[in-house]
Amino acid sequence: MIDLDLLGWAMLAVGALIVGLSKTAVPGAATLAVAIFAATMPARESTAALLVLLLVGDLFAVWMYRRDVDWATLRRLVPAVLVGLLVGAVFLGLASDAVVRRVIGAILLALLAFTLWRRRSAADAAELGRTAAYGYGWLGGFTTMVANAGGPVMSMYLLAMRLPVKTFLGTTAYFFFAVNLSKLPFQVGLGLLNLQVLAIAGMLVPLVVIGAFIGRWIAVRISQRLFDRLVLVLTAVGAVNLLL
């Protein structure tokens, strides 16, 4: 049984608001929600509760950004993501919570360093799309399966592709809606998504909706430069938190 006190519920409420905000405005913020849920609930069960909330946020993001999608980028990622999901399911069944968190944190820091180097060297985005889609796609599938932390990986890829804010958010929305939906059978099969976890997630859904609408208000007002910096900073914060 998962026993939550008032402070625990308050932390989960903040995490749910961040989920909604991350889906419609600042994708990198989702790693903060991952950390909050993992600190409040058993880490493995927290991935299942968070998955339900992420799907709710995905639905709102898909609806809000349905006209802003780079379908060519999504098609390049699909094969590698499927491989990453399968490998991640096996890893999640075998690894401990501590190992899961540290592996994801190390991957995110490496990708952050690579992205900063690419941006500083002014490398061609189209070239990156052809050569790195498999690597980013595989890592995105793997990290989203084991810790619901695929957002920063894909953010680094789409940031390197230099997509405009709305196209970035729309492409992310469709990508993660499909990926998160495909994760449900794995979470049920591993025994992580049970009735108690579902009930906890259900009570937090309204806060995800509120966060999604706040995020939409922010997204239409944020500059491209500030958006890029927020993605980078939040990815770094989330990665360090997972390592510690």
UniProtKB/TrEMBL annotation:
Pfam family, one: TauE
Annotated keywords: Cell membrane, Membrane, Transmembrane, Transmembrane helix, Transport
UniProt keyword Transmembrane present: yes
Sequence intervals crossing the membrane: 6-39, 46-65, 77-94, 99-117, 137-160, 192-214
The keyword S-adenosyl-L-methionine appears for this protein: no
Compartments, as annotated in UniProt: Cell membrane
InterPro entries in UniProt: TM_pro_TauE-like (IPR002781), TSUP (IPR052017)
Bilayer topology: Multi-pass membrane protein
Chief localization: membrane
Superkingdom of the organism of origin: Bacteria
Family of this protein: Belongs to the 4-toluene sulfonate uptake permease (TSUP) (TC 2.A.102) family.
Name used for this protein in its record: Probable membrane transporter protein
Native species: Nesterenkonia aethiopica
